[in-house]
Amino acid sequence: MIEHVYRRAAAARTVARTIVATDDRRILEAVRGFGGEAVMTSPSHQSGTDRLAEAAAAIEADVIVNVQGDEPLLAPETIDAAVAPFAADAALQMSTLRRAIRDGELQNPNVTKVVIDREGYAMYFSRAPIPFTRAGQPAAPAWAHVGLYVYRRATLLRLAALPQTAMERAEALEQLRALEHGIRIRTVETTHATIGVDTREDLERVRALPSHLITT
Question: For 11-15, what is the mean pLDDT?
Answer without folding.
Answer: 96
